Amino acid sequence: MTMVDGIDARGMQHCETTTLAVLLRHQGLDLSEAMLFGLGAGLSFIYWDSKSMDFPFLGGRVKPFTLTTGLADRLGLELQVKETTSPRKAWEHVTAAVEAGRPVGLQLDSYHLDYFTSRVHFGGHIVALYGYDERHAHLVDTAQQGGAVTTSLDGLARARAERGPMTARHRSFTLTVPADAAPPRDRIVPAITACAGAFLDPPIANLGHRGIEKAGKLVPTWLRRSDDPEHDLPQAALLMEKAGTGGALFRNLYRDFLAECAEQIDSPHLRTGHALYAEAAGLWTHTAALITRAGQTGDAQYLVQAGTQLRELARMEREAMQALSRLEP
């Protein structure tokens, strides 16, 4: 068995921040999950639907791995990424890191991981690998999935080789914290204003505050959009609350990030943003409950109420991000 020493295998709420925490704690940089998410400018919104999809998807974060690259850029971390179409070379990339005493991040499709009880294809899942033997890999995943877990090497290989939406070519990565890395406190304002800028000025109407407003118009049609609303609507709500989001479609995490920042930076704009996101987080949870209720009862009135709340959330989050965009270095 080959294992990296000194691994803190705590699982967190979201897969990418969990992996980042494992890699950075091993380098001596211990940040909260909310701070990792916020410094990586992870908050976003997308209303995603297409003819190839059985049902629309509401997403509350930037696309997979963007949080990692954003965090590395902002803190001046050395991010080494390996990709290949060769399964053999891909495994060599992993074993070389572990044998050098370093945990390694992997992007893969969670469908093939043995410890997942709910098998759904998701090619943007990210885990930390810190050891292996002849048959199994030792990983750190979210607390919901068990934290320190094992999966077969065969299943891991299939997960890394899967192709489809959000997948990567056997992507693995390591992080190094240089001696002259920027103190996290110094990078708070640039992270917040970058996130606010992207949210306020999205390139298409499906993203940012415009995407939430669009969801407010379309969610009331979801009973007609679904062939199986009793399954599809509660499933959509479950993804908003439980699927690694930290609750409230990642708004709980961003609220907590802003609260941490407000302890370090005295700014009325920051306090305004935090107060609005604290209110928005509760409204997102209530919106998810309404969507669940609509699926359970078949009553479209619950979706009408959800649509009204989504339009209010679009306004609320737009005002929050406008306040946060005014932060000065």
Largest sheet: 7 strands, antiparallel
Secondary-structure class: alpha+beta
**Total of domains:** 2
Radius of gyration: 20 Å
- Count of discrete alpha- or pi-helical segments spanning 4 or more residues: 12
Low-confidence stretches: none
Please explain how this structure is put together.
- This protein has helices spanning 15-25, 33-39, 66-75, 87-99, 153-161, 188-200, 208-218, 222-225, 229-241, 251-264, 268-297, 301-324, and strands at 2-3, 43-48, 57-61, 78-82, 104-108, 125-132, 136-140, 148-152, 172-176.
- By secondary structure, it is of the alpha+beta class.
- It has 2 domains: 2-30 and 78-176, Alpha-Beta Complex (Cathepsin B, Chain A); 184-324, Four Helix Bundle (Hemerythrin (Met), subunit A), CATH 1.20.120.
- The strands form 2 sheets. Strands 1, 4, 5, 6, 7, 8 and 9 form a 7-stranded antiparallel β-sheet that branches.
- A hairpin with a 3-residue loop joins β6 (125-132) and β7 (136-140).
- α9 runs antiparallel to α11.
- It is globular, with a radius of gyration of 20 Å.
- The termini are far apart.
- The model has no long low-confidence stretch (mean pLDDT 96).
